[in-house]
Design a protein that fits this description.
The chain has a three-stranded antiparallel β-sheet with strand order 1-3-2. The chain has helices at about 5-20, 40-65, 75-100, 105-120, 130-155, 165-210, 215-270, 280-310; strands at about 1-5, 25-30, 35-40. Helix content is about 80%, strand content about 5%. This is Gustatory receptor.
């Protein structure tokens, strides 16, 4: 139970709600007076695991059976579409597996963030919670909207013999892609907040700790030791966040590389036929832009956070 953590929790709340809706938040946040309590939710954990297990099986089955409904022009295109679905299903599997195995670590991560925020507040360091909440909310909304728009556009340009079946295919695919974006939103929220904490502590060290040299030796030593302890807590938080999300993000970047490569190949191949399908080319280009833009943002946030660590 962590006191005075409403503001820091509100910064992460958009990512938490997104994860909760997608089945990736096996805990609940309760506010009791001046405290915020983070507790495991076993029923949610079991139901979400069962749901995703069935969804992954269903998605792979549809990826296999849908090939007969496509009006494709070559076996290569059929293979690319099937591989694309397998990659998305594989990423969903990785996300689910590590979310379920790291449930305790994820709860611990949230509690550590609450604890460090309390230490920062006690030292009079003010975080820009409003800006953090705005950035997190914007990233979550834009990510979910763009991925959904891509799926809707993809559905609109397809020509299926069975509309009901095609709707089921792309509903499952949209759910998988939205889960893909959910992990990115959580990574963005955590490391944006941690990077901001490092930034404010660096400012504090420049202005407050340097002033302590003008004071007596006891006050100077205490100020330096307190700041060093806080820095150590933040370094451990970065290490813990990396342990929780590293495999998921590695899988996310691997899938992005594979999908972007396949989409670029599809665009190049589309121009080699007599009648170019510009809708197909546009959808592939849309997908490449979304995925690359997302990964560039995540890389910049991670780089900024690691840069703050090296400065300290």
């Amino acid at each position: 139970m962590c006191p005075h953590t409403l503001d820091v929790v509100s910064c992460l709340y958009p990512a938490y709600i997104y994860s909760l809706l997608m089945g990736f938040a096996p805990f609940k946040i309760e506010r009791k007076g001046p405290f915020v309590e983070i507790k495991h939710c076993k029923i949610y954990h079991v139901l979400s695991t069962l749901f995703y297990t069935l969804s992954i099986c269903f998605l792979v089955w549809m990826g296999y059976t849908k090939m007969g409904y496509y009006h494709l022009q070559s076996p290569m295109q059929r293979f690319i579409n099937f591989l694309y679905l397998l990659l998305v299903a594989g990423l969903m599997s990785v996300n689910v597996l590590f979310n379920k195995l790291h449930t305790t670590s994820l709860v611990t991560l949230w509690r550590k963030i609450c604890h460090i925020d309390t230490l920062i507040r006690n030292r009079g360091i003010k975080l820009n919670y409003r800006r953090l909440m705005y950035s997190t909310s914007t990233f979550c909304i834009v990510a979910a909207t763009l991925h959904t728009c891509y799926i809707i556009f993809l559905v609109s340009i397809q020509n299926y013999k069975d509309p009901l079946f095609s709707g089921s295919v792309y509903f499952a695919l949209n759910f998988a892609v939205t889960g893909f974006a959910c992990v990115s939103c959580s990574f963005h929220a955590f490391f944006l907040l941690i990077g901001h904490m490092f930034e404010k502590i660096l400012e504090y060290m420049k202005h407050r700790v340097l002033r302590s040299f003008l004071l007596d030796s006891d006050s100077k030593s205490k100020s330096i030791i307190d700041t060093a302890d806080l820095h150590q807590e933040l370094c451990e938080l970065v290490r813990h966040a990396n342990d929780v999300m590293s495999v998921q993000m590695l899988a996310s970047f691997a899938v992005t590389f594979s999908v972007v490569t396949l989409q670029i190949y599809s665009m190049v191949n589309a121009f080699n036929i007599k009648k170019v399908d510009y809708n197909f080319v546009l959808s592939s280009l849309f997908c490449v832009i979304i995925l690359l833009q997302e990964k560039v943002i995540l890389s910049l946030v991670s780089r900024r956070c690691m840069g703050m660590v090296s400065k300290d």
